[in-house]
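2024-03-11 09:14:02 INFO worker-7 job=invfold-0412 stage=load source=structure_tokens
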């Protein structure tokens, strides 16, 4: 099993929406599961798109699970997610808000 993690920075680090590029990379790496950090869920700054669902769809209809770290945030949420190939269904999940350190932003844990 190949597990990948990637901080996508709301898919805008390179100045354009790179969801398609990340989807292509995951397929090229033959990833089975991917942990994705810094994604938006329906925020105004990224056009009200549920980015994790879009990535899962472009990658081939993968399963997905989103956990917000900042909620509400710009009309939606900001957080982390996990996607897995359709042959690896998400059977259970839980999440946890982590204690906020002084001067830091909220963090979360996403377990599937």
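2024-03-11 09:14:09 INFO worker-7 stage=emit residues=112
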């Amino acid at each position: 099993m190949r597990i990948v993690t990637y901080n996508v920075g709301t898919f805008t680090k390179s100045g354009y929406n790179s969801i398609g590029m990340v989807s292509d990379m995951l397929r090229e790496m033959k990833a089975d599961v991917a942990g994705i950090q810094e994604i938006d869920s329906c925020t105004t700054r990224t056009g009200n798109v549920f980015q994790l669902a879009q990535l899962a769809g472009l990658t081939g209809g993968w399963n997905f699970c989103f956990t917000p770290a900042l909620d509400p945030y710009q009309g939606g949420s900001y957080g982390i997610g996990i996607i897995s190939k359709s042959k690896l269904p998400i059977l259970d999940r839980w999440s946890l808000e982590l204690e906020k350190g002084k001067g830091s932003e909220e963090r979360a844990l996403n377990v599937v």
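2024-03-11 09:14:09 INFO worker-7 stage=report msg="The chain has a mean pLDDT of 95."
2024-03-11 09:14:10 INFO worker-7 job finished
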